């Protein structure tokens, strides 16, 4: 049982390049999330998907797009990378069982992205 | 989701109990208190959560005050491997837009 899997683990981009971060979960979870974490700071929500077929903006969505490909997969795309997007990106999922507030977040191991 | 306030850092001696405070004075009745921790730059890991009652699991204990305005995470016998950033968050029934603050950096010293 792999949990939440993110690829790649590391990536270096030049300004203006595009790339897609992949995330997949094998826990049959309904909700999935993308976060970014800058040095010394907490995690800020970029986008989330409450269920398959839906996506919504989080706290810091500018410069990103997402796709909920199916129930398992939720990808994050940078269309034109900027140095300000240098960060560690985490994907997470929640079970969606029972009341919304009684769910655990499961996180992937992160993608370290540098934009030069 | 209710805002939570945590001290930025604290030290703990190995083998002693670590008591991590969290204030959540604006918490609503349907919001749970959750604790996660992040070791190095790994993804955050769930520790424990509760609504009203105190909770205990194999990792920690959670003490929630009767008015639910604050809580304490207790690591009963801290080890060097407990050195991490600990996050306290309040999560309710409509909370999808959930972000984590800076948390408390706990350093366990030998």
Q: Compute the average pLDDT of chain A.
A: 92
Overall pLDDT metric of chain B: 92
Computed Rg of chain A: 14 Å
Q: Mind describing the biggest β-sheet of chain B?
A: 5 strands, mixed
Compute the number of strand runs of chain B: 9
- H/E element string of chain A? EEEEEEEEEEE
Which percent range fits the helix content of chain A? under 10%
Instruction: Compute the number of helices of chain A.
Output: 0
- How much beta of chain A, percentage-wise? over 45%
Output the radius of gyration of chain B. 13 Å
Poorly predicted regions of chain B are none
Query: How many β-strand stretches of chain A?
Result: 11
Helix content of chain B: under 10%
Number of helices of chain B: 0
3D structure, described in words:
The complex is a heterodimer of chains A (116) and B (110). Chain A is mostly beta strands and 116 residues long. Helix content of chain A is 0%, strand content 49%. Chain A starts with a strand and ends with a strand. Chain B is mainly beta and 110 residues long. Chain B is built from no helices and 9 strands. In chain B, the strands form 2 sheets. Chain B has a 5-stranded mixed β-sheet with strand order 1-9-8-3-4, with no helix packed on it. In chain B, strands 2-7-6-5 form a 4-stranded antiparallel β-sheet, with no helix packed on it. In chain B, strand 6 and strand 7 form a beta hairpin. The mean pLDDT of chain B is 92. Chains A and B meet through strand 4, strand 5, strand 9 and strand 10 of A and strand 3 and strand 4 of B.
């Amino acid at each position: 049982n792999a949990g939440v899997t993110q690829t790649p683990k590391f990536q270096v981009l030049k300004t203006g390049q595009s790339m897609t971060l992949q995330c997949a979960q094998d826990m049959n979870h309904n909700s999935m999330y993308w976060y970014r974490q800058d040095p010394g700071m907490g995690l800020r929500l970029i986008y989330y998907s409450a269920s398959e077929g839906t996506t919504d903006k989080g706290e810091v969505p500018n410069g990103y797009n997402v796709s909920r490909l199916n129930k398992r997969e939720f990808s994050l795309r940078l269309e034109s990378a900027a140095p300000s997007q240098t960060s560690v990106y985490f994907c997470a999922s929640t079970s969606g069982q029972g009341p919304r507030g009684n769910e655990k977040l499961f996180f992937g191991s992160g993608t370290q992205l540098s934009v030069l | 989701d209710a805002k939570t306030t945590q001290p930025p850092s604290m030290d703990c001696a190995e083998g002693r109990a670590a008591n991590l405070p969290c204030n959540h004075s604006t918490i609503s009745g349907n919001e749970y208190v959750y604790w996660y921790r992040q070791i190095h730059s790994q993804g955050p890991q769930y520790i424990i959560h509760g609504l009203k009652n105190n909770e205990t699991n194999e990792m920690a204990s959670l003490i929630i005050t009767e008015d639910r305005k604050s809580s304490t995470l207790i690591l009963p016998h801290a080890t060097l491997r407990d050195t991490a950033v600990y996050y306290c968050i309040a999560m309710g029934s409509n909370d999808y837009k959930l972000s984590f603050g800076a948390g408390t950096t706990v350093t366990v010293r030998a």
